Amino acid sequence: MMRAQMTSASSCWPVRNSSIPGLVAHNLSPPQVPGVQSDNGVFGSRTGLLVECLEVSGGSKLSGHVGISGAKNSALAVLAGALCSEEELNLKMIPDLHDIQRMVQVLQSVGVKVKRSASGLTVDASEIVSVEPCPEVVRKLRASFFVIGALVGRKGEAVVPLPGGCDIGARPIDLHVRGLRALGAQVEIRQDKVYARASHGKRLVGGKFHLDYPSVGATETLMMAASLADGETVLSNVAQEPEVVDLAQFLISCGAKICGVGSSTLVIKGVKKLHSTDFTIIPDRIEAGTFLIAAAITRSSISMSPIIPQHMTAVTNKLQEMGCKLRQTSQDSLLISPSQLLSSTSITTLPYPGFPTDLQPQFMTLMTSCIGRSVVKETVFESRMRHVEELQKLGAKVVVNKNVAVIRGIDCGSSLRGVPVTATDLRAGAALVLAGLAADGTTHIEGINHIDRGYESFDQKLRLLGASVERLASLPVELVTL
Ligand SMILES: CC(=O)N[C@H]1[C@@H](OP(=O)(O)OP(=O)(O)OC[C@H]2O[C@@H](n3ccc(=O)[nH]c3=O)[C@H](O)[C@@H]2O)O[C@H](CO)[C@@H](O)[C@@H]1O
Ligand SMILES: C=C(OP(=O)(O)O)C(=O)O
């Protein structure tokens, strides 16, 4: 009840950026919220006492073109990798979102100079003054932990707190730790901090390590560490996600010697130092997938670019199977035209090239609007079903048994209608916005700080496509009721 009051239009007011200058990819300038100071001097940011929520009115058709931003998870890994290089780097297609702002703060806390340039960021890690990044910031995101590989590779030691990130499972760091030990590091965990030190003087040494699970983060951490180790490292059963490949390409462009990129085994010959580069981050396949689902759930036709079609095969195949027509209109752009009636399907989340876990909540939402029963099996994270409870509040008929959800479509009881809901994590938040687009009436979504962590200008991009999405701000309940 308190939540409903807090998000009602009477206690909230719109916070709308006037426009997104050039909603064409490669040219997205940082959104500024009037009157709000940047907290790191690099991007605009939304801070202070205001609590924001999104008000989504369902039923609008979408149309037009949406520009896809650079991939969050690739940009975060590349920013961690920037610590490996002793020369200035020019990074393009870095999205402006909260996790990136925090990652910049992590780098700044160890002495890295970061500036916004016309096309992206320049990063100068020539002088690293500390091997212990700011714990408060590290604890706010997951990718901050990946700096441990770069720091211990470059400086011979690192002290990094256990990271934050989406609350979707236990998310241990054992593979990072065991992999660093295989490269000759002594690693201890004391009071929520990981202490790593190269035992052979100041440098790691090449070694062999088999990952029990193809962890994205552990592969990235170890790739960075091995790039600056003495001798050869062989990493087997590594993650093959496009973002992992992008980090490898970035390190190679700085002078790293990495073979087997995109396969399950990497052979890395360590080099003494890495040099400068100009590097462009790949487009965000998860953001693109979210907009494809936005079009499908509203039965609307939209186009998007830039995308890399082969990164999206698992998702586009499923959409086609359900009845969406997809056409590649150029090498890097895609047009989606869904049928009015979409049929049910099943998905199982898996490491790449399997169906991405980061699109599971959004896809589940789409399934509520299909004909028939769909099934979702989540195999990557053990607690990534928290959006189900919120979807149920909106009228979705979903039953969960451990890691399997059965979703009833519109012919068997699902019928979405707007109510107040709360985003529990990043993709859960996106899923609720998508549900709001298709629901009858108005959906208020709280907890949108999660969405801002990982989507650049999500509500603005949706508005430009014709969606009715307003960002409302209010004082927190405890202050309103004082
Ligand atoms: C910032 C970033 O890039 N985040 C992505 C990255 O997260 P992240 O790198 O955290 O994901 P991982 O691939 O490491 O995790 C996958 C599975 O491996 C387990 N695991 C991982 C490491 C470890 O040391 N031990 C262990 O058991 C995890 O608990 C999880 O069950 O990949 C995930 C899987 O594609 C995505 O959902 C996240 O968006
Ligand atoms: C899980 C995600 O991010 P993180 O790993 O940063 O929590 C995500 O991007 O969906």
UniProtKB/TrEMBL annotation:
Identify the residues that the record assigns to the Enolpyruvate transferase domain, covering every copy: 57-462
| Compartment(s) | Cytoplasm
Q: In which pathway does it act?
A: Cell wall biogenesis; peptidoglycan biosynthesis
Q: Which family does the entry's similarity section mention?
A: Belongs to the EPSP synthase family. MurA subfamily.
Q: Which GO terms describe its cellular component?
A: cytoplasm
Q: Which PANTHER family match?
A: UDP-N-ACETYLGLUCOSAMINE 1-CARBOXYVINYLTRANSFERASE
Q: Which GO BP annotation is one of this protein's?
A: cell division
In its keyword annotation, does this UniProt entry include Cell wall biogenesis/degradation? Answer: yes
Report the EC number(s), separated by commas if there are several.
2.5.1.7
| One GO MF term attached to the UniProt entry | UDP-N-acetylglucosamine 1-carboxyvinyltransferase activity
Q: What is the protein's species of origin? A: Marchantia polymorpha subsp. ruderalis
Keywords tagged on the record: Cell cycle, Cell division, Cell shape, Cell wall biogenesis/degradation, Cytoplasm, Peptidoglycan synthesis, Transferase
HAMAP family tied to this protein: MurA
Supply the name of the protein. UDP-N-acetylglucosamine 1-carboxyvinyltransferase
Q: Which Pfam families match?
A: EPSP_synthase (PF00275)
What is the reaction catalyzed? phosphoenolpyruvate + UDP-N-acetyl-alpha-D-glucosamine = UDP-N-acetyl-3-O-(1-carboxyvinyl)-alpha-D-glucosamine + phosphate
Its main subcellular localisation, reduced to a broad class, is cytoplasm
